[in-house]
Design goal:
GO molecular function: hydrolase activity, acting on carbon-nitrogen (but not peptide) bonds
Radius of gyration: 27 Å
CATH topology of the largest domain: TIM Barrel
CATH class of the largest domain: Alpha Beta
Helix content: 25-40%
Region (Disordered): 270-290
CATH architecture of the largest domain: Alpha-Beta Barrel
Strand content: 25-35%
Number of domains: 2
Mean pLDDT: 89
GO biological process, one term: carbohydrate metabolic process
Domain NodB homology: 111-242
Largest sheet: 7 strands, antiparallel
CATH superfamily of the largest domain: Glycoside hydrolase/deacetylase
Number of helices: 12
Pfam families: Polysacc_deac_1
Shape: globular
């Protein structure tokens, strides 16, 4: 009896301390949320939104003090983004709604976005959640599950994740368990994403084998999925590539296969070709996102979303008259459409200039006709080109010189001789089954598709001009229409 009474006394005395300890532990595991920024603290821009458009995926990272880095968006800026989206008529999607769209192609709203936040940073609970609550919006956090609760206060804790899940505003997907890092991938010490590449095993002076690589990334993904479901959350349906790095070759094929076995799709900011959300992207295993950084204004965000809205070939009209519809490679940043039309300026140090016409908005084109006129063809060192099905798995390129034209694609080449001239009129007709070219009103070349694969063969077009002689006399497209 005395022993029992003693234990009871100890329990009674210890109870307040136990409760205090548990409260303190929970308090440290669940930080206080910051209030949302003052309503209307920043003006919302007026940017025309498309009448209807498929979902666009926005890729954020942390939310907090802007001094923390390029990928940390301030609470005030996020508030302005979400208010601008709401006023422009955009609705946010849950992961279930978004993956249903990937399967069916049917969007649940005329205009929508899927908000994603990579890494699982602490700022999602402290800053982003109150802002989502203000606007009645939803988002998905892509967790590095092995880092949850570590490196405090940078990463979320599982109790914070639980609170976010209970709110109904958040879904939780995977961003690897412990694969968000860089390491040497060859004997020279070149470092790259450990998830997207086979590693260099320095002690054995070799790279991982394909089998070792597959086993490693599969084990990481399985740990990540188990960590999420072990905390009572739904099984992740989507994966976001670490660093949003796309890879090529054997490693890419292995990684794609492992991801397809586990997820509906993988998200990346740097897809190997334009893959806007939809069944075609899901079939390819990659969905393209739009990166949002510290410097992204609300106006720039709305314009970027609008630019991704699909445009029908018949609505493209005269693309050379709309300078903002052209995208040049990174090493030609600042180059304008004048470099294609003969007006300049031209990027210094280049002999070849290339630009794509709204690659994402035209990514699903399968049937269209281009009519163009080219001038300034002076000799074998100058030429102009049109690539159709651009950015697809089966691009086809027409190259035109002073006295010859060449059509190449899918490992085949067709050529024709032309009456030598400084300029030519071109017509390129694209269907799922073939690409047909006429020059100066006469049939020139035809390439039939190996198979009718619209998912791999869809795509818009790009233009290029070439001055191999460095003469400074560039060819020019003097007209271009799309039908």
């Amino acid at each position: 009896m005395r022993g029992a009474l003693g234990l009871l006394c100890v329990a009674v005395v210890a109870l307040p301390f136990t409760l205090a300890w548990r409260y303190d532990a929970l308090h440290r595991a669940v930080a206080a949320q910051a209030p949302a920024p003052a309503a209307g603290a920043a003006p919302v821009p007026r940017v025309a939104a498309p009448a209807a458009a498929p979902p666009v995926v926005l890729a954020y990272h942390d939310v907090g003090d802007e001094r923390h880095g390029r990928f940390t968006v301030s609470p005030r800026r996020l508030d302005t983004h979400l208010r601008a989206l709401r006023e422009a008529g955009y609705r946010t999607l849950s992961t279930r709604e978004f993956t249903a769209y990937l399967r069916t192609g049917r969007a649940p709203a005329p205009r929508s976005v899927y908000l994603t936040f990579d890494d699982g940073a602490h700022g999602l609970w402290v800053h982003a959640d109150p802002i989502l609550r203000r606007y009645g919006m939803r988002a998905a956090a892509f967790l590095i599950t092995g880092r949850v609760g570590t490196h405090r206060p940078y990463y979320l804790t599982w109790p914070e994740i639980g609170r976010m899940a209970e709110s109904g505003r958040w879904d939780f997907q995977t961003h690897t368990d412990d694969g968000h890092d860089r390491a040497p991938v060859d004997a020279t010490g070149h470092r790259a994403s450990v998830f997207g590449h086979r590693l260099w095993l320095a002690a054995e002076r070799r790279r991982e084998t394909v089998r070792e690589y597959r086993r490693r990334i599969a084990a990481d993904l399985d740990r990540s999925v188990r960590a999420v479901t072990a905390h009572g959350l739904p099984r992740p349906e989507l994966f976001a590539h670490p660093f949003s790095e796309a890879t090529d070759g054997t490693d890419a094929r292995v990684l794609d296969a492992v991801l397809r076995e586990r997820f509906t799709a993988a998200l990346t900011n740097s897809a190997r070709r334009p893959l806007p959300p939809g069944p075609r992207a899901a079939a390819a295993g990659q969905v393209q996102r739009t990166a949002v950084t510290r410097g992204t204004t609300a106006a720039a965000l709305l314009r970027s979303i609008a630019r991704q809205a699909p445009v029908a070939p018949g609505a493209a009209g005269r693309p050379l008259e709309r300078a903002g519809d052209w995208e040049f490679p990174d090493d030609m940043a600042g180059t304008g459409v004048g470099a294609l039309t003969g007006k300049g300026p031209y990027p210094p140090g280049h002999r070849y200039i290339w630009a794509g016409h709204r690659p994402v908005a035209t990514a699903d084109w399968t049937s269209y006709r281009l009519r163009a006129a080219v001038s300034g063809l002076r000799g074998p060192g100058t030429g102009a080109g049109i690539t159709v099905r651009a950015g697809s798995g089966h691009p086809v390129k027409l190259t035109v010189g002073r006295g010859a034209a060449r059509l190449a694609g899918q490992g085949r080449v067709r050529s024709c001789r032309l009456d030598p001239a400084a300029g030519h009129g071109l017509a390129v007709t694209v269907t799922p089954a073939q690409v047909r070219v006429s020059v100066d009103g006469r049939p020139c070349a035809l390439l039939r598709a190996h198979r009718r694969d619209e998912a791999e063969g869809a795509g818009g077009f790009a233009l290029d001009v070439r001055d191999d002689d460095r003469s400074g006399h560039w060819p020019a497209f003097t007209s271009l229409t799309v039908e």
